[in-house]
Write a structure and sequence with these properties.
Largest sheet: 10 strands, mixed
Distance between the termini: 70 Å
Radius of gyration: 37 Å
Number of helices: 29
Protein name: site-specific DNA-methyltransferase (adenine-specific)
GO molecular function: DNA binding; N-methyltransferase activity; site-specific DNA-methyltransferase (adenine-specific) activity
InterPro entries: D12N6_MeTrfase_N, DNA_Adenine_Mtase, DNA_methylase_A-5, DNA_methylase_N6_adenine_CS, SAM-dependent_MTases_sf, T1MK-like_N_sf
Strand content: 5-15%
Strand order of the largest sheet: 3-2-1-4-5-7-6-8-12-11
Number of strands: 21
Structural class: alpha+beta
GO biological process, one term: methylation
Helix content: 40-55%
Catalytic activity: a 2'-deoxyadenosine in DNA + S-adenosyl-L-methionine = an N(6)-methyl-2'-deoxyadenosine in DNA + S-adenosyl-L-homocysteine + H(+)
Amino acid sequence: MSQTTNNLAAYIWSLADLLRGDFRQSQYGRVILPFTLLRRLEGVLEDSKPAVLAAYENIRKMNLPEEAQEKLLLRETNGLSFFNISLMDLGKLGEAGIKENLESYIQGYSKSAREVFEYFRFSEYIGQLADNNLLYKIVQKVRATDLSPKAISNYEMGLVFEELIRRFAESSNDTAGEHFTPRDIVRLTTSLVFMEDDEALQKPGIIRTIYDPTAGTGGFLSSGMEYVTEMNPQAVMRAYGQELNPESYAICKADMMIKGQEINNIKFGNTLSNDQLHADRFDYMLSNPPFGVDWKKIEKEIKDEHNLKGFDGRFGPSLPRVSDGSLLFLMHLVSKMRDASDGGGRIGIILNGSPLFTGGAGSGESEIRRYILEADLLEAIVALPTDMFYNTGIATYVWILSNKKAAPRKGKVQLINGIHLFHKMRKSLGSKRKEMGDEDIRLITRTYGDFEVIDSMELDKPADAKSSRGRQSENGNGDAPKTFSSKIFKSHEFGYRRITIERPLRMSYQFSDERIEELRYASKPLNAPMKWLHEEYGKHWSDNKYGDIKEYEKDIRIHIKKEFSGLKEKQIKELLNRKNWLQQKEILEKARLQQQKIGIDQHDDMNGYDAAVKATGIKLDARVKKQITAAVSWKNPDAEKMIKKVHKKGTANPIYGLFNMGGKVIEYQPDGDIRDHENVPLDPSRSVNEVNEEYFIKEVQPHVPEAWIDSSKKDGQDGEIGIVGYEIPFNRHFYVYKPPRDLAEIDADLDKVSGEIMQLLREVHS
């Protein structure tokens, strides 16, 4: 920003001097921004307004709808997309009745311009200014400022308005992060997105589009246009956006009006549930969506689009969990990329750490990452320092995507670790305590542009301030050097196959009195309350009264509500029903009859259980047999393996659970409690089975010889064994091991501290 525009912005912001005392600091921008817009629009319309007023005199007699009137009046504006049919301007409002005159003047604007003031809730602030006798003073100061195109160009006026927005953001402090992206982050992201096209953007007559689905106050749109204008003043950049917050929408639309953009390209509403630019595709896209915000309110619309449209819609790959919609915005942007055959598109989006790794293989998040990486859309991810945003201090990352990668980048992803590229701010703004300087931004963009690998380059950055709390170690490890790194990976290196590892089920059974007695009670959740009830009231039961507890029902209900509050009314009724008690007693008696035939010895081969039960001759239905089996059996690692199936034909293959035993091919029953999963790195150069088997033989079989791979667990897309997953463990790739201090140093430190403590204790006791 030049000194002239900076001075003009400071002069306009000095309106705050009149507001101080009657308005809160966070409200200054809500007065200054719409008044600035009003004065600029008045200057822009100065030449065309006489023709518009003359045309309106004729058109209003036709009694046409407002929309039809606007189309006719726009012909008289010399190409502008708005007009004003009021006979007033800021110099004709007068002092008496100024509130009503100003409101009437604003109503004279065309619908799209008038809407901006409505979303600013400008009439409310006009009322407050009038009530505090400030309106006339504000209007007089505003009208004394020449903001016409003759005095200041669209480009310069855009810079002034951006500076006013920045001041508003800083005065809003804690709430600013919902609507404003810090300028340093905007500059970095914009540079990363545009720099690959620098050569193309310098061509004469170039026309490009830029889009932000979470436009906020238009910071990204403005930065993109500014970047291109500085490079090529003759280039045309058309801005598109959508914003959910009314005030941010008003600021963004006002900013676009000031810059001479087509304001109907800025839409109001929820981008995810109601994409108002659904047919458009764009050259450049920039976005800072809300971090970790759930999408429960629009869950139906999102799921309907996913299920009904699939890849013809925006959310074809999958859906993330409802608690975090960040990846929905990413998929939305990918769907908006101009086709590669038509020049392609580039994306810069700011996300928190969750989209990098949340969700295992087969989850919605993993499937989205899979789609992006297998489609070779991801160019780079840059890790930013913490404490960079107004409303959060969490770790954040800039993702750069493109469907027109340069040849060296094809099939590869660059990770840049810029967490130490910052300087501390003199004064915090909300949670923003750090800022990236021009040199920091240049280092990242240069490294990205050169597609360069940098291994821990030490930075000339001051050490972090030490805490003043507690005792500082004299023999500490010292401050770790602040470094900058860049690494390049093949896209498939972030992928893996999750194979399921099974081990055989081993069980024993015994018809002991203690185990059989458990059959007197139903299974969970009635088991514990039945035990209590039998212990409390069972001593009164005779055979013809067994389970009859009606006379105690009131007391039982009181106890249950207190001690077993999780039981529902239906379950309480089952508990109090004598029929259920008699059914359990009948099962108990049948088990006792089985006990007489089978005996009370422990058997460590469950494979003989069915034959032993059948030999008793006691008929049991499936439900009763299941309950008795559950009572008399338990898992025992020393028992024999349970056989699931004996194959009459086939070849043994222990890797996939087909074992040779006595000339037969045996398949064992798996034990779900000790089931495990292994993540096998992807290797596209070899077959899936070859990679899986090599990993299993090397990493699993030596430790658990009886284990096998479950070949039924296959990927939904390629049908191969193992479910494909993708994650980008950023921190793991940049972790630098730091050995602990020598034990002798630690012991000496402890001895010294112990001596100091003992000395203090002696002084206290003395």
